[in-house]
Amino acid sequence: MAGAVDKKLGELGIALPTPASPVANYIPFVRAGAMLFVSGQICLDAGGKLIAKGKLGKSVSLEDGQKAARACAINVLAQVKAALGDLDKVKQVIRLGGFINSDPAFLDGPKVMNGASDLMVAVFGDKGRHARTTVGVAVLPADAAVEVEGVFEVA
Question: What are the structural domains of the chain?
């Protein structure tokens, strides 16, 4: 039986993908007591293809960057579900960290990260409101446009 968060995802037309496997020497998530830390997730679609590749402010538009950040957030949620088995166990989205593959002159990284933040609020309501860091970086794995990590308080 689907929980409230799964039903909300369905209403939003979101099907969580199979979580991506790590590509290096790390694990996708770590639970420490009531805290769940999710490793950075790049902007892969359900088929494993990058939603956006390249640099914001050059080959990737702000709108495509926001879509990429949203895809990253969906992938973060897929890892949370793998960790907990039930997204209703999320008590609070504590923090999102966003890494934006940016041209040095690109200043709208926070607007890109709204793609991830807006999704968390749409899915969890007030429990989805979170602290956040957004950092422009020179390069990301596979030349992904965006990577997002998360910290959650869980039951």
Answer: 46-154 (3.30.1330.40)
pLDDT per residue as tens digits for the range 41-70: 999 999 999 999 999 999 999 999 999 999
The Cα 110–Cα 10 span in angstroms is 27
List, for residues 88-144, the tens digit of each pLDDT value. 999 999 999 999 999 999 999 999 999 999 999 999 999 999 999 999 999 999 999
Q: Give kind and range of the element (H or E) at residue 40.
A: strand 35-42
How far apart CA 87 and CA 122 sit, in angstroms, is 14
Cα 78 from Cα 40, distance rounded (Å):
12
